Amino acid sequence: MTVHSTLAGHGVAVRINRFITLLAVAALGLLILPAAAQKKAGKPGAGPLVPADSHFVISFNIGSLLKKSGHDKIVDLPGMDEIHEELKDQSELAAKILEDPALLGIDFNQPIYIFGKLSPPEEEFGEPVVVGGMIASPLSAEKLEAGMRKAVKEGLGELGTQKLKNLKKEKNYSILTSEDTPAALAFNDDAFVIVGGNDEEAAADMGKLLRSVMAGKKKLSEGEPTFAAYLNKSVDLGGWMNLNALMELSPEVPEEQLKQMQELIGNLRMAGSVDFVPGGIRANALYSVDAEYMKKMKPAPKKTMLDLIPQNAVGSFAYAFDIAGTRKWMKEEYLPALKKMEGGEAIAMAELMVMGAIGMNFDDLMDIPKGEMIFSFIDLEMAANPDFGTPEPKPSLVFGMTVNDMKKLDTLLKKLEEEGGMEAMNAAGFDILKQKDRFFIANNGLIPALRNGKMPNAVAGARRTFFDKNEQGVLVDFKQIARLAQDFDAPNEVVQVLIKFAELRFEANKRGDLYEMGGELTFRDAKTNGLKQIIKMAQEIEQDIDLEEPPAVEVDPDNR
Q1: Which residues fall within 8 angstroms of residue 538, CB to CB, at 6 or more apart?
Q2: 3-class DSSP state for residue 316?
């Protein structure tokens, strides 16, 4: 009985593995469309047809990625020859697609979308039920059907040909459904849609879902600002999530507590994307929360401390936000609600511990900041330890913030002094400065510049503009990081990688009803596409590893 069950389980696992392999290889097969056949990218394609009740969406633009990789075909990429040979044994259909891309009739310069809706499992420890599908843009209905018939005939033989006899015309599209298969497909000149599910009962009526998608009813792009904004951009890779719906799948969160949390924070949606651009890699995220307090948030105040950020720091951060609105919501709604929820006693206990340590509760702490912060890690150098005389790394940095309630800050600093924190800070070469509504912690040598209100080499030019125009801004200078790596005798291989990069930037802003976050990693080579540079870098690292791999050592079994 045990052996039989094991073999049966193994058979299921093998079938699942083959199915997953087929899907993966079919996706890889899409990548080999010759670059000469590509059309200009930039439209959302059939993306606006994604159903409105989807919980997640993933998209990828194969034509764009292939072009930016610097290769005409996926088989030209390092390691693809071996993968191609191995996949011939896994799926005859996938191998034929790889060998002959003309079998496909999909427009690879338009995004391909994968969407899904998840439902809690019926059993306590079961898997979530997933119903979803794929939406792509065909070159034309005629070319797609011809390619599909050829691929099915050569890959699946007579069985596949018989299945395609059920393909029929409905309205302005062709559709293929089957009562004994939890999947269906349809296409016309504008869209190619496949739907399916992992549960027979949930996926029994795929035809209804498919017809709704093809008719463009109840679309996610209507009324969902994060997804609508996502479609307006041409992205290489990306996705969208309904975070509230996904939270409901967690068995760890009680239903009542989840309901309270959702009422508190509102509907939370997020979209993200990655784009490979000349000289860099760009990532963006959009999120929306319809909670009332978010709608009342005011624009961030203008930054006043940018003159205190050095131009050539290793990394710097500048932040301005509506602290008054946030403080009001935190005090009156968020923290009180959390304390009433299951597990809220832990928050109350944490507050008691904070009060015991510094004599202030959470409300007092929230009264201190006024809404602007800066931080700059300027440098790192070797300096003698005052106690032992031995050299050790000593950072040069500055932290600053505007203060709303200086009396409460003084209470906090007094407690820090009583506990010996101030003495330890001074011994390490740091000091504090209070000036009107500003508070700083910095190296002793930086205090005069802070008191004067400007660093000798204050941030300027494009970097100043970056910090000034974004509510939140982070900038990391790889030139300085590479210099530090050399100063501290880092391996040459590490230094060689670091010197290829220029900057890492992150910004965040509120734009109407949406919150936008973005980051960009740039290379010293500002012209070559970031994806091509990443592939080349990976090849170089792999070659270095192969060269350094030690020779195999034979072990004497009698002398272990």
Answers
A1: none
A2: strand
d(CA 48, CA 2): 50
Q: Any idea what the Cα angle at residue 273 is, between residues 270 and 279, rounded to 5°? A: 150
C-alpha 320/C-alpha 208 separation (Å) is 50
In contact, 376 and 398? CB cutoff 8 Å: yes
Q: Which residues contact 4 (CB under 8 A, 6 or more apart)?
A: none
| Structure tokens belonging to residue 114 | 């994968």
Q: Helix 80-90 crosses helix 92-99 at what angle (to 10 degrees)?
A: 140
Question: Which residues have CB under 8 Å from 141's CB, separation 6+?
Answer: 173, 174, 187, 188, 189
d(CA 510, CA 294): 10
Closest CA to 56 of 302, 224, 223: 224
Whether pTM > 0.70 for this model: the answer is yes
CA distances from 167 to 105, 191, 206, 266, 550 (A): 17, 16, 15, 44, 59
> Can you list the alpha helix ranges (DSSP code H) found in 393-446?
406-418, 421-427
Helix axis angle for 2-29 and 80-90, nearest 10°, is 130
Lookup: tokens for 218: 């109840």
Q: Distance from first CA to last CA of the chain, Å, rounded?
A: 41
Count of C-beta atoms within a 10 Å radius of residue 117: 20
Residue 399 near residue 375 (C-beta atoms within 8 A): yes
Task: Say which amino acid occupies 214.
Answer: M
* Residue of 23, 209, 39 lying closest to 107 (CA atoms): 39
**pLDDT truncated to tens, each residue of the chain (560 aa)?**
333 333 333 333 333 333 333 333 333 333 333 333 334 445 678 899 999 999 999 999 988 888 898 877 766 766 777 777 777 777 666 666 666 655 678 888 899 999 999 887 767 666 778 889 999 999 899 999 988 887 777 767 777 778 888 899 998 999 998 777 788 899 999 999 999 888 777 666 788 889 999 998 889 998 788 898 888 888 999 999 998 888 877 766 677 777 777 777 778 899 999 999 999 999 999 988 777 777 777 878 889 999 999 999 999 999 998 888 888 888 888 888 878 777 778 888 888 888 888 888 999 999 999 999 999 999 998 876 666 667 788 999 999 999 999 999 999 999 989 888 899 999 889 999 999 999 999 999 999 999 999 999 999 999 999 999 999 999 999 999 999 999 999 999 899 999 999 999 999 998 877 889 999 999 999 999 999 999 888 888 877 766 655 555 454 544 44
Residues across the chain:
560
The phi, psi pair for 509, rounded to 5°, reads -150, 155
- Looking from the CA of 365 toward its CB, the CA atoms found within 13 Å total 10
Judge whether 497 and 534 are in contact, CB under 8 Å.
no
Give the orientation angle of helix 406-418 with respect to helix 344-358, to 10 degrees: 70
Rg value, the chain, Cα:
29
Kindly tell me the sign of the dihedral angle through the C-alpha atoms of 88, 89, 90, 91. Answer: positive
